[in-house]
Amino acid sequence: MGGPTVEERKAQIAAEPKGDYFVGRRYYVKKTRFWGYVRRPGQSWDRSKLVVMREDKKRTPDRYPENGSGNQRYGFDQNYEYKLNGYFTGSKVYDPNSNQVLPEFMLTGYEVLNRQPGWIFRPDDRYDPYRITVYSR
User: Fold this and answer.
1) What is the Cα–Cα distance from 6 to 131, expressed in whole angstroms?
2) What is the span of the domain harbouring residue 105?
3) How far apart are CA 122 and CA 101, in angstroms?
4) Quick one: pLDDT at residue 17?
5) Cβ-contact 42, 13 below 8 angstroms
6) How far is 56 from 52, CA to CA, in rounded Å?
7) Phi-psi category of 38—alpha, beta or left, where left has phi over 0 and alpha has psi -120 to 50?
8) pLDDT value of residue 112
9) What CATH number does residue 32 fall under?
10) Residues 39, 42, 45, 49: what is their CA dihedral angle, to the nearest 10 degrees?
11) In a domain, 137, yes or no
């Protein structure tokens, strides 16, 4: 997945402005319904949570058909990093395709921070669009 060194990543996270928002990393695996990883600014990705997005107030950036093309398809933003506004609802959601019960995040707004941030948890992260390969160990 490429990206910065471990030291550079730690420095980037430490330099994030504090505030009432979250940092999200889109993690798309075909046929799953989770959105990606979400953490507070200044926290390491190891403390992030894999979430299902609730879109009552704001739709996710990739709300397109799965069979679309280019930037007009679901999951086009794989590994984009976002500044997210919203909150954890306290509910858990079952994703039948990944067989996981995950926290629900109510999205109220977002902006793209980085389209190519590189690895999430470790420099040796490997992405496979057909199975979960990127997770905190």
Assistant:
1) 25
2) 6-114
3) 24
4) 95
5) yes
6) 13
7) beta
8) 96
9) 2.40.50
10) -20
11) no
Residue 82 maps to a domain: yes
**Predicted local confidence at residue 65, as pLDDT:** 66
pTM of structure = 0.92
Residue 97 lies in a domain: yes
Three-state SS for 5-63 is CHHHHHHHHHCCCCCCCEEEEECCCCCCCCCEEEECCCCCHHHCEEEEEECCCCCCCCC
Distance CA 129, CA 137 (A): 19
pLDDT per residue as tens digits for the range 25-57:
999 999 899 999 999 999 999 999 999 999 999
Number of domains in the chain: 1
Beta-ladder partners of 53: 105
Within 10 angstroms of residue 3's Cβ, the number of other Cβ atoms is: 17
- Bridge-based pairing state of the strands 100-114 and 36-39: unpaired
> Quick check: is 127 in a domain?
no
